[in-house]
C-alpha cells in the first residue's frame, strides 16, 4: 500500500539574530509541528536558499529588515523584481520599528504585510498564528496591513 504524501506547509525565515530564529521556530512548532521552517541567517543566505530550492517555494517568507550585508529591503526588492515564482510569495517584513517610513518603504517594495516584532514569546506565537490563519490566497485584499500580535 502506498504511503499518503501530505504536503507540508513551508515557511522561510531570514533573521540575523540566532535567538530570534530559535524562538520563531519554537513558536511555529508549538502552533503546528507539521510546518517546515527553513531559516537563513542573513539576506544573502535567503537568496541562495531561494535559488537552490526553485521551483519549490514557501507559502510565506518572514523577512527581518535590519540584517548585515543584504538587508530585508534589498531582499524584498530582489524577490519582487525576479522572473521566478518567488515574486508572488507572501512576504511579511519583520522589524522592531513601527516607523511610518519603514512601513511605507516595505509596501512600496512589494511586502504583503509588515509586522512589528513582539516583545514576548506569547506575542510572537500570536503573530505567527494570526498569519497562518489568514486567507493568504486573498492577500491582494489584505495587502498593506500592519500586523500586530
Automatic annotation (TrEMBL):
Domain of life of the native organism: Bacteria
List of residues that carry 4-aspartylphosphate: 64
A Pfam family this chain is assigned to: Response_reg
Residue ranges of coiled coil: none
Residue intervals of the Response regulatory domain: 10-132
UniProt keyword terms in alphabetical order: Phosphoprotein
Database matches in PANTHER family: RESPONSE REGULATOR RCP1, RESPONSE REGULATOR RCP1-RELATED
Protein name (record): Response regulator
Source species taxonomy: Bacteria, Pseudomonadati, Bacteroidota, Flavobacteriia, Flavobacteriales
